[in-house]
Design a protein that fits this description.
It comes from Brachionus calyciflorus. This is TRPM SLOG domain-containing protein. This protein has a domain of about 100 residues. About 30% of the residues lie in helices and about 15% in strands. It has 5 helices and 4 strands. The protein has a two-stranded antiparallel ribbon with strand order 1-2. Strands 3-4 form a two-stranded antiparallel ribbon. The N and C termini lie far apart (about 40 Å).
Amino acid sequence: MKNENLERKLNELDIEKSQCSTFIPSKVSNKCECGLDQINHDRYALEKQNKPSKWDRETCTKPGGITDAYGNIFFKDKNEEISKYIRVYYKTPMNKMIKLLFDDNYWQLKYPRLLISVTGGANLSISRLLMDILCKGLVKAASTT
């Protein structure tokens, strides 16, 4: 069940989700290169003329209305701690996100002392040793900042 109060607040902030606007068939039947099934695309995305040859987030997505992808995550190994999540359009202005996260009228989180962003999306296969080195490097960077 969705929290109606949070839903109203997301409407106030006008925080949108992404929507695929161009169906590019993948090698997997009835799927788009965005990963969604054909049935999850509107008629415009399916019938769009002058489609690019390759799916690209910049040209093949658009804002898809107020986000409905949010809620709570429960981590069993964190003493049943509840964490919040939200999926937003990748061009959502940062001031809206800061307001959602830290404003007294919304999630009321404490400001972080450190914020690390790891950006990527490639499906990499890396060894356990390389993963350990990467994690140790991130910890060292965080502790010296």
